[in-house]
Design brief:
single chain, four-stranded antiparallel sheet, Serine Threonine Protein Phosphatase 5, Tetratricopeptide repeat, Immunoglobulin-like, alpha+beta, 4 domains, 31% strand
Length: 307
């Protein structure tokens, strides 16, 4: 049935009709190449070389949009076990992404999709250890998996490799086999022996930024790999926090104290300078000078000669 439909669609989309023979414009080169690739794909399908057929149809579809090519590509993807891609392509075909389907074509495409979709597996990934990690499935970025939550994705039947990477921790690789139509839960433990907890508190509306680790308002609490982290409050560097493995480090930062630190230091310097100047004045005065008066302490005697 598949071969019959392929031939039908081929005639529908690629057959050179009589209009070309009566002086209509020639078919562009890319369409000619697309048609040639389509024929090669059909031949490979007939001979059971589904991987080659898939590649022929894919290249053909890149050159020229065709209902026939899209359908045959979906068939070849199903034959090579790439069910997720096959169903996605069939859904696009049914939605009219490659042209308007006739009722017969729509029925055939819907039936093929409905027969293929139940064989797709569902994988649910979880981690223990760090709060989050990057997940790659068969080398492709899948997303971020959060501790305590499953990251779910559709997976083709067969053997696969999931790689989980968290900051400061060695990547963890797991191989698994997905059966047709299976739902698989896989929890991957991440070595958290080198992790510590950093807690930074401030005013409720203060923006706390731990460079390279994240940002929060009012309170920052995160499990992090051991190491030094620059802490900022409202965009201003405050101090470097040292996170130690297996420990919780807590910092309390206030806007007022952090903003006035420089002023306090400057005022202290002024006071010290004034005090030093006063001391020097009394030491350098004429040692026989008369005592000086102070409105608070009364008479202050300067050093007398011989004392």
């Amino acid at each position: 049935m598949i071969r019959t439909l392929s031939i039908f669609l081929l005639l529908l989309a690629f057959l050179v009709d009589a209009s070309h023979a009566v002086g209509q414009p020639a078919i562009p080169d890319d369409q000619n190449e697309a048609r040639s690739l389509f024929v090669d794909g059909n031949r490979a399908m007939d001979e059971g070389r589904f991987g080659e057929a898939r590649d022929f149809f894919r290249r053909s579809l890149e050159l020229h949009t065709s209902i026939a090519t899209a359908f045959n590509l979906a068939v070849s993807l199903e034959r090579t076990g790439e069910l997720v891609s096959s169903v996605e392509l069939l859904s696009d075909l049914i939605a009219g992404e490659f042209g308007t389907l006739s009722p017969a074509q729509r029925t055939e495409a819907v039936d093929f999709r409905d027969r293929t979709e139940p064989d797709i597996g569902v994988a649910q990934f979880a981690i223990t250890g760090p709060p989050s990690a990057e997940a790659r499935l068969d080398g492709e970025l899948l997303g971020t998996v959060q501790r305590g939550r499953f990251l779910e994705t559709e997976v083709d039947p067969g053997e696969h490799v999931i790689v989980i990477t968290a900051r400061g921790v060695q990547p963890v690789e797991r191989r698994f086999v997905m059966e047709r139509g299976e739902t698989l839960e896989l929890t991957i433990p991440i070595d958290a022996s080198e992790l510590g907890t950093l807690v930074v508190e401030s005013e409720a509306d203060a923006v706390i930024n731990v460079v390279g680790a994240g940002e929060a308002r009012g309170e920052f609490r995160r499990t992090l790999p051991a190491g030094d982290y620059q802490v900022q409050l409202d965009g201003v560097d405050q101090e470097v926090a040292e996170v130690r493995a297996g420990q919780t480090v807590r910092l309390v930062l206030g806007r007022r104290s952090s903003r006035r630190t420089g002023l306090i230091i400057a005022l202290s310097a002024v006071v010290l300078a004034a005090a030093a100047g006063t001391t020097a004045y009394f030491l350098l005065r004429d040692r026989q000078a008369d005592p000086s008066s102070d409105p608070l302490y009364g008479t202050i005697f300067t050093l007398q000669a011989g004392n």
